[in-house]
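Hey, can you fold this?
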Amino acid sequence: MRLARPLARVAVIAAMAATLVAGFGVASASADPSAVPRFVSLRTAHANARVGPGTGYAVLWEYRRKGLPLEVLNEYGNWRRIRDAAGDVSWVHRALLSSRRAASVAIWIKKPIALRSAPEPDARVRARLTPGVVLSGLMCEGRWCRGTAAAGDRTGYVPQAKLWGVYPGERFG
């Protein structure tokens, strides 16, 4: 009887660990859209980034790029604590954010990356994208993302690992 109890405890701990690991798994299109953290985009071409969650807090800077990908880190009422691709953190009102997904070429990538005609490393190059270029209309399948470059005239595929605005292995769209 004494052996059964430690084995049961081990089984419970293993089940809890599996649940915990599953909780950190890859997000998908069916994931909770209000989960934190999550990626969103800027709904407007102008948004004040504030020190705290309210209009009484000082403005740190202004975002001036509609569709800019941002990561929601926390929520307080109608305010969202967000992080941008540069790692800067601030507060923005939720009305200024959209659930539409976008991503930017990661700023730590030093060379332009290829926007390809198909999700294959040797597919035809449609354009070269420099760090910071935003892709909208994003759909990701875990390794590649399909999107339209900021100018709106080039659609193609980019390796997911070279984008900021999507989690590793994430699938949606």
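Oh, and this one too while you're at it.
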Amino acid sequence: MTKLGPTDLLAIGEVAERTGVAVSALHFYEREGLIASVRTAGNQRRYSRHVLRRVAIIRVAGRMGVPLAEVAAEFARLPADRMPSKRDWERISSHWRGKLEARRLEIERMERELTGCIGCGCLSLGTCRVFNPDDTLSADGPGPRLLPKIDPAAIDPAEIDPAAIDPAETAERLRNPD
């Protein structure tokens, strides 16, 4: 059995099989600049093994609702001429931490407040008539006025303790949201 290394080149089918992503999606990611390949003399694509990590991050980010444009912006910070180091990934993680924390806070807030008035103008709940009589909040602008967006810039990534996040608990919450 051949020992695998991080600089090995993989055929597109191997990347698709290992990542669970369709070949057409890999082509799309490449066109969007999220991953890169080299061509063989026979014009076949070959991907560095570290592309597997990028595709995994793209998929997880997608499941969390992170737009591809945000993923692309973060990937643009990675070196194009070499395999990203742990320090490169730490820099990305630190930069993304505030954005992810803001998303988490928005999701938790929505979970708590979804059964009450959110100021969307539906007026379908009893609390809507109290918090938004005659849809007066529409004067403040469109959308759910009582669920304003959390500004990621207002969250200091240095104050977030990654060690306090329990990966097993997070995975369990994602598997069983109820």
